[in-house]
Amino acid sequence: MLFSYYFHVVSISEGHTCASTSKVLSREATKGWIADKAKDILRTRPTMGPKKLQEHLEGQFPVKIAYTKVWEGRQRALDELHGTWQESFRMLWSFKAELETTCPGSVVEIDCKKTKGGKICFSRMFVAIKACVDGFLVGCRPYLGVDSTHLTGKYNGQLAAATAVDGHNWMYPVAYGIFYKETKANWIWFMKQLKRAIGIPCGLTIDTDACKGLETTVHKVFGDAAKHRECFRHLMHNFRKKYQGDVLKYMWPCAWACTTRRHEWLWNKISETCPEAIPYLQDNHKHVWSRAKFSGECKVDYVNNNISECFNNWIKDFKGLLVDNLVDMIRGKIMEKIAMRQLISQKLEGPILPSVLNELKEKSRNLNYTIKGSGGLKAEVSGLTRDNFPWRHAVDLEGKTCSCGQWQISGKPCTHAIAFIGSLRKVKLDDYVHDYYSVERFKATYQFLVNPMVDKSQWPAVDPGFEMWPPKLERAAGRPRVKRIKSRGEPGKRGPYQCKRCFQFGHIAKGCREPPTELGDELPPLVLTKSDSR
Fold this sequence. Notes:
By secondary structure, the protein is of the alpha+beta class. Among the domains are: 31-82, no CATH class; 85-231 and 305-345 and 446-469, Nucleotidyltransferase, domain 5 (2-Layer Sandwich); 352-434, no CATH class. It contains 18 helices and twelve strands. The protein has helices at 31-44, 50-60, 67-82, 85-102, 130-139, 184-198, 217-222, 232-242, 248-256, 260-273, 277-284, 306-314, 323-346, 354-363, 406-410, 415-422, 439-445, 530-533, and strands at residues 107-114, 120-128, 143-150, 158-165, 171-179, 205-208, 227-230, 370-373, 378-384, 390-396, 401-402, 468-469. The strands form two sheets. Strands 1, 2, 3, 4, 5, 6, 7 and 12 form an eight-stranded mixed sheet that branches. The chain has a four-stranded antiparallel sheet with strand order 8-9-10-11. Helix 2 packs across helix 3, helix 4 (85-102) runs parallel beside helix 13 and helix 5 packs antiparallel against helix 17 (439-445). The longest helix is centred in the middle third of the chain and has 24 residues, at 323-346. It is globular, with a radius of gyration of 30 Å. It starts with 30 loop residues before the first helix and ends with a helix.
């Protein structure tokens, strides 16, 4: 007869010699298990990286998981959720068909190229949603910032965008596209598609940096119908590599100068301080970068292309996605932005946007100016600088001009005009602000909606007549960089302190003992020679 004995261990008096399962790398957490747990997380947060996912899983479950296993499990989860690398490029045709159906009139172009082996591979793509184009043409100022940013996923190409500004100076996306490299051919193709989408609005101004391919593209595609500005921040980044010293304190004031006389005076100062800088600027930076050279038609006084940097920062969380998810997520973000601003526009009243009026009212405080009327709506406005230099400007309210030049460039009255308007009865400040800042224009910009789209599993199946393969990638050795290295002078990268009073380096304005470099409208007093005084 067999007997079975069972026993239950209640406690062990001696110390444990086995390892804790929560402190050693687990063999039971397989790639399949990780993928199953990560699906719910990545469905709402598709840009979560392996390190964050590893910390999340180890915090939720009492296990230690190797980083490589988390990476493989995350990749498997993304493939199951969003499809594979090859499928993402083929789905672009379905995205094009669905967007053209839901938003008729949108411009969506996909360009391919044939390799030496006979395969047809993806080359580049352009997207301009109809609602964005129409809103730009009827409500925004004719100004576009064009730039591109590096993608950080497996497809390490470029995301290009054309971005405008509305009456609030808020970023307004007009078009975007993807291509592999910033070459002249790719930029010409992008600009041609942009021209096809928006045409050539009156006073169109395009602001770019000095990147490869863009320096001549604007003129080749748009000709003389579009003004080409160059981002001054990028110009200064290149300028500082070659020149240092006192010449730097005249560069930014030269860019901010709103009159030809002020610009020429500072230009001569640059020439006196550093003569070799003049040929460099004339040969390498031929496009417009000073306010004194702006046409004034678009009513945008930006010397930097910061609006493009705003767009790049706005979509930075999507740069690691597969291409079909990338273009769809940007479309969805634009849809939400336009819908939100449409609600804002419905609450606005009055002729001019409240933010613009508040800005002008803020400028009207403590203006110690002397006003001498010359009859009608014209006057001389004079005063003193902080360092007691006298200045005087002529203001013409009927022509909406001031000799300082600021009013003509921005479309908003300068402080000299504001002071004169405030001294008159029955004259409203609203009547002298350009129509680009009106509530009516703002409502017109956001009257169009981006219609919603279904999930990509319900997008129409499209047969382009050939099989489109992913592009052949050129990947550098080592781990791909996700965050770019910031250059000196960018936010987040501390460089030497620069004084805002004299614009020299090494100290701030509070303790400045150097003679000031005026940035505004006033000029140093003229010194008459003997020949001039006769």
